[in-house]
Amino acid sequence: MASSRLRLTKPTLAVLETLADASPDDPPWGLRICELADLGSGTVYPILERLSELGWIESWQETDQPSGRPRRRYYRFTDLGMRSMVQAVAERRARRTRPASVAERAEHFLSQVADGKAQ
């Protein structure tokens, strides 16, 4: 899948989460994604562009010209994007899962010291 071309950085994950949490009846627009993800537009828009190039999201512009502001561009996952996102996040979690935390290893070591088995 295309996930190999997408680095799942914390900002990328924040954008993906914002898109995943969105209601189909109320899709997020660019600046709303910035607000919800707590990221600047200089971070969010390049991520949206990469997601679009990979076919993970689709976007469209408001049809009516609102008074006093530019038209909004809305974003949502494609079917491919939703599947790819779920797989990529699962793969990332699997890579980042450690068999034992540092605290668990330290506790094990200290118990061996206490038992006189540590080297």
List key phrases describing it:
single chain; 119 residues; mainly alpha; Arc Repressor Mutant, subunit A; two-stranded antiparallel sheet; 2 strands; 55% helix
Provide the succession of SSEs. HHHEEHH
What distance separates the N and C termini?
Answer: 46 Å
Largest sheet: 2 strands, antiparallel
User: What level of helicity do the residues show?
Assistant: 40-55%
Choose one word for the global shape: elongated
Q: Classify the beta-strand content into a percent band.
A: 5-15%
Given as residue ranges, the uncertain stretches (5+ residues, pLDDT < 50) are none
Number of helices: 5
Helix and strand composition category: mainly alpha
Task: Lay out the secondary structure.
Layout: H1 10-21, H2 30-37, H3 41-53, E1 57-61, E2 73-77, H4 79-96, H5 102-115
Antiparallel strand pairs: 1-2
Helix pairs in contact: 1-2, 2-3
Explained architecture:
This protein is mainly alpha-helical and 119 residues long. It has one domain: Arc Repressor Mutant, subunit A (Orthogonal Bundle). α1 packs across α2 and α2 crosses α3. The protein contains five helices and two strands; from the N terminus they run αααββαα.
